[in-house]
Write a structure and sequence with these properties.
With 450 residues, this protein is an alpha/beta fold. It folds into two domains: 4-254 and 370-441, Amidase signature (AS) enzymes; 298-361. It has helices spanning 9-18, 23-41, 49-65, 107-114, 151-158, 175-181, 215-225, 243-248, 261-264, 269-284, 298-323, 330-339, 344-364, 390-397, 427-441, and strands spanning 44-47, 76-80, 118-123, 164-169, 184-187, 207-212, 256-260, 288-292, 370-374, 402-409, 415-421. α11 packs across α12 (330-339), α11 packs across α13 and α11 (298-323) crosses α14 (390-397). The model has no long low-confidence stretch (mean pLDDT 96).
């Protein structure tokens, strides 16, 4: 039988409910894994050993006393260190907030705790969740980047230090770290999960997501967090589907997939070869495959995302930057200062192009279930960068749900990842299709760690 630290969130939930393992045993197993690997990988900003063990004992007492148990009882998770956490330091990846201890939980953490999950600690993020490289190391190759601002979350999940962790995506910082580290990364529709209690980057782009090892685990966590929250003005009132049922009931027919050639053209030869091979295997299993191009030039679409993100980040950081200029890392400082110089007309024009692009991409979904594109343009580059956001930013800009799937290894032994994208608020369909891909081609195993 697999070690407790090797098991998925769904497996752990079932084992705890059945009395095959206690929540305290699970937490201790993961803490032991962290003790062994953390000095090498540096995935955690804070590990709440005392709090997690106390919460585990409460979960174990509930299992013996209650008949109706919550779905995630006793399952540990991590949270990117921009999620506020009651009584636990939230550092935002910068010494400016080194002593900040919130007195309330972010909505996502609040809902996971209500579902019985245990916050194990806070994972490393880049400063203010921007692109200055993190101290975290890729578990497949320490000379390669683990990705963007949710890098600690991706590494903790990939290295089996926790079965799931919360991240956020403003350009590509859920899917890109997931792809580089070989995990599943789910970014739902904009507004699907409340951002209350999450330090902002760009108000019209920031999206809460989750990194896991399986599609089922992503569905399990999304189901616990999704839904309207009046504390977030942009939280959507769209009804929440039964995401677990979508995953656990097989598709009636193989999915219809559309390859976006504009995005595929930006991929390396290694990534294109992998996606071609993957597409062939999916077609052999019954999938219908089509090809199309975006209704707007990709470079123009990426530029509109860039203008939007830069302008909104300038608004977010103007107050702090004016008072602590010398304490801002160089890349985010330059980004915000440039954003302060952008004319308002550029931002307004970007939003017009955004609406035009959104309408055109919506039309592409008329005859297909999901788009199929690379999750990243290439395998993980070196640690001087957090990687290329091209393959993710366009879908973040449009608010579409997307999922990264670890579908192969490069000749260098590094993870390669495919991305599925669905219409807004079609997470159930997206997860069902992703699970079909998982069952059809399988996912890669864990990185070669002790």
């Amino acid at each position: 039988m697999a070690e407790l630290w090797e098991r998925s969130a769904a497996d752990l939930a079932a084992a705890i409910r059945a009395g095959e393992a206690s929540a305290e045993e699970v937490v201790r197993a993961l803490l032991g894994r962290i003790d062994r690997l953390e000095p090498r990988l540096r995935a955690w900003a804070t590990v709440d050993e005392e709090g997690a063990l106390a919460a585990a004992r409460v979960c174990d007492a509930r299992r013996g006393a209650e008949s109706a148990l919550p779905p995630l009882l006793g399952v540990p998770f991590g949270a990117k260190d921009i999620f506020y956490s009651r009584g636990l330091r939230t550092g935002l990846g910068t010494d400016l907030f080194d002593r900040f201890v919130p007195d309330y939980d972010a909505a996502a953490i609040e809902r996971l705790r209500a579902a019985g999950a245990i916050l194990l600690g806070k994972t490393v993020t880049t400063a203010f969740a921007y692109v200055d490289p993190p101290p975290t190391r890729n578990p497949w190759d320490a000379s390669r980047t683990p990705g963007g601002s949710s890098s600690g979350a991706a590494v903790a999940v990939a290295a089996r230090m926790v079965p799931a962790s919360l991240g956020t995506q403003t350009a590509g910082s859920v899917l890109r770290p997931a792809a580089y580290c070989g995990t599943v990364g789910l970014k739902p529709s904009f507004g699907r999960i409340s951002r209350h209690g999450v330090f902002p980057a760009a108000w019209s782009l920031d999206t809460v997501g989750v990194l896991t090892r399986t599609v089922e685990d992503a569905a399990l966590f999304l189901e616990a967090m999704a839904g309207h929250d009046p504390r977030d003005p942009l939280s959507s009132p769209e009804p929440v589907d039964n995401y677990l049922a979508a995953v656990r009931h097989p598709l009636r027919a193989a999915p219809r997939l559309l390859v976006l050639l504009d995005v595929l053209d930006r991929a390396s030869a290694v990534m294109r070869a992998h996606l071609d091979d993957l597409a062939g295997r999916l077609v052999a299993a019954g999938a219908e495959l089509r090809e199309a191009r975006l209704p707007l030039d990709l470079d123009l679409a990426l530029a509109t995302h860039h203008v939007t993100m830069q302008t909104e980040m300038a608004a977010t950081h103007s107050f702090l930057l004016a008072r602590h200029t010398d304490r801002y890392p160089p890349r985010i400082r330059a980004y915000v200062q440039t954003g302060q110089l952008l004319p308002g007309a550029a931002y307004v024009h970007a939003q017009r192009l955004r609406r035009r692009l959104r309408a055109g991409v919506d039309d592409l979904f008329a005859q297909v279930d999901a788009l199929l594109v690379p999750a990243v343009s290439d395998q993980a580059p070196d640690t001087s960068t957090t990687g290329d956001p091209t393959c993710q930013a366009i879908f973040t800009f449009l608010g579409l749900p997307a999922i990264a799937l670890p579908t192969g290894l490069s000749p260098d032994g590094l993870p390669l990842s495919a991305q599925l994208v669905a219409p807004r608020f079609a997470e159930a369909s997206l997860l069902a299709t992703a699970h079909w891909v998982e069952q059809t081609v399988g996912f890669i195993g864990p990185p070669p760690l002790p």
